[in-house]
Amino acid sequence: xxxxxxxxxxxxxxxxxxxxxxxxxxxxxxxxxxxxxxxxxxxxxxxxxxxxxxxxxxxxxxxxxxxxxxxxxxxxxxxxxxxxxxxxxxxxxxxxxxxxxxxxxxxxxxxxxxxxxxxxxxxxxxxxxxxxxxxxxxxxxxxxxxxxxxxxxxxxxxxxxxxxxxxxxxxxxxxxxxxxxxxxxxxxxxxxxxxxxxxxxxxxxxxxxxxxxxxxxxxxxxxxxxxxxxxxxxxxxxxxxxxxxxxxxxxxxxxxxxxxxxxxxxxxxxxxxxxxxxxxxxxxxxxxxxxxxxxxxxxxxxxxxxxxxxxxxxxxxxxxxxxxxxxxxxxxxxxxxxxxxxxxxxxxxxxxxxxxxxxxxxxxxxxxxxxxxxxxxxxxxxxxxxxxxxxxxxxxxxxxxxxxxxxxxxx
Length: 411
Fold this sequence. Notes:
Blueprint: E1 2-12, E2 17-24, H1 38-51, H2 54-58, E3 62-67, H3 69-73, E4 85-89, H4 97-108, E5 112-115, H5 125-129, E6 136-140, H6 146-153, E7 162-166, H7 171-180, E8 184-185, E9 194-199, H8 205-215, H9 222-230, H10 233-247, H11 256-263, H12 265-279, H13 286-309, H14 315-323, H15 327-331, H16 335-338, H17 346-352, H18 358-370, H19 374-384, H20 388-410
Organism: Caldibacillus thermoamylovorans
Domain EAL: 1-207
Protein name: EAL domain-containing protein
């Protein structure tokens, strides 16, 4: 499954890139967002922070992302690091008392806030009341008259605000904006938005419904949440990438349950909301769906065999080894690249890279079963010291477990 995001650079007065505005796109050749609703913002957020490498996407500068009123008020920006995100408030969002209070909170948390297509109205107290919490005002250079621009730039005398001239399309407009005192510049004169694509793993929407229902309870059952997430390769992958982005390998993950506990239920709920509104209407690819089901069979087989044999190491770690073993085929990205984005413990990473250890041997066994390579099966069974009956039982249990979730999705 392909995902898309467009980026357009923002330059400072010294012609250096200050950041990129990241924009929603439906396809590689689409030229406009076509939507400014919650799902469009959620799509940009998930793609930018979880599907793409954000550092590469923005050249390690700021990313400007549009937020709707709903997402601002439910705390969505708090899922993303303030050192990277500029909260861009759409012109359609009126600065109510609730919005102003939210901006005050985000400002205190260290986020930069930008107002898009701001229109100065001294008769509207709220349009002025929000300004102490704003870092940057974006002005449409083509539709805002020169006299209005002049009046708006006077706000610099009263607030610590910088101004960005957007939709600058000619050198003449750029030079005029510089002369007027604008600090940043964006538009076709510099570069049109460039659409980038990346592979993504589809999520089964049925799982979202189960997770949302459980997290609405006063005391959600962590074991039940773990069970659902373990049945969903996409959600598991994004959960680990999210932790990696937040904690930068301060944690080595051994299980999905541990990942949920580290993230915390409050942040887990917010991310669940973002992902669910983003994925609600996505179509499934039957080839990818088959790879995902194989991943789940591998994960459950490795975990079940580890439990039956009481092999050294957490059974949940064997599950992760099997489940992520096809991620490179699904995303069409080298495994060496993918493991750098996941905070997995070293033994799991080594196994995924083909380095022999106990995890890799169990993984090799399920691969041999898939290929009906009997010589390899017997060799590995002897090496691991496991009976053939135990292998068969584990494999049948894994298939039954996987089919259970896929039949629920299709119901």
